[in-house]
Amino acid sequence: PQNSTTLSNVHQCYVLLCLQVLHILFIWFVTWQI
User: Structure pTM?
Assistant: First the structure.
């Protein structure tokens, strides 16, 4: 159970990190387009 919870937390962190990176890339792309 402990291992499963840790894996879930790591996955959640990964998803949040990916969303942040995508957001930054999106903003960077939009500012470059203007």
Answer: 0.61
